[in-house]
TrEMBL record:
Gene Ontology biological process terms, A to Z: aspartate biosynthetic process
Protein name: aspartate transaminase
Annotated ranges, domain Aminotransferase class I/classII large: 3-325
Lineage: Eukaryota, Metazoa, Chordata, Craniata, Vertebrata
Originating organism: Anolis carolinensis (Green anole)
GO molecular function: L-aspartate:2-oxoglutarate aminotransferase activity; pyridoxal phosphate binding
Alphabetical list of Pfam families matching this protein: Aminotran_1_2
Amino acid sequence: MTAFTTAAMELLIGKDSHALLENRAGAVQTVGGTGAVWIGAEFLKRWYKPNDSAPATVYISVPQIGNLGCIFHAAGFTDICTYHYWDPVSLTVDTEGLLEELQNAPDGAIVSLHEPAEMGLTPKEWKKVAAVMTEKHLFPFFDIETQGLASGNLDRDAWVLRHFVDNNFELLCAQSFSKIFGLYDEHVGNLIVVTKDNETLIRIHSQMAEQIGMVWFCPSGLGGRVIAIVLRNPALLYEWKQSLKALVKRIMLIREKLKEKLRILGTPGSWEHITTQSGVNSFIGLLPSQVDFLAKRKHIYLLPNGQINICSINSRNLNYVAQSIHEAVLSTTIEDHSQSTWNTDLDYLAKNSIDQVPTRIIFK
């Protein structure tokens, strides 16, 4: 649906983007953001050959959200590594560590950049990341599901991607509308492609259209039409933007209240990172044993890496969540802290052979 893919692409990379004006940016509609990652991963496995002698290495961030590692693995990639941007001990962004790991990556590696607006890096730090990726000829694969939900400003949340586009990167970007439009049952996604020239874009678009035809004949029509209408109508677009701003204000208020509750309870440790982070999800710094305590004792279910969806906290359950986190932290011995690890789906891949890894993908 051209009306949808064009409007969605303009929303993310900007109507005045040089890539659009030079006709070297395009997009294909997909079944959710995960469908976009899947099509992009399969395309790269088939056609992206930075070295003739070996397939590309894929780098995925830790901590991470979702099943990106499993998707790339199912697409046929076998050399899947991780890079770290978050220090689980200091609970702050580790920019120097991130730059060092990217500097040590093999030339031409694919780097997954999941929700860059929520990673916590400053524009100056992102410029350093882009410079290293240029030097190492690394290929950026963005995954953006919550544009507008980090800062409340659609353009600000898209700055990182636009910076890479303006600096002449060839890249892919998976885009999802499940969260920002509330269309979970429609699974509306978009895969954006930015190339060096129009001729390359036409060839890539042709190959992706063939891939999509083998996976699903046609993605959601209703969801795509709804989004296209809203993005093309100034009054509806303004109303939607105001809704995003209101949601972000609520998210930040919940973050402030949760941090204050933990302070009043005297929960050991610093909880400032809850409010310095932004967006729908938060890595609140809990250990796997503490996450397990919450699930078994309090029936509060987080991902193993301690990620919680802030939107699931409200005025009715805030006190219970804070008290439960407090008890979970107190239940942990000092020895447990020395064994802190970040769990990812790559841990699962490392323990299983290729034949044992399921290829079922949950589209979001």
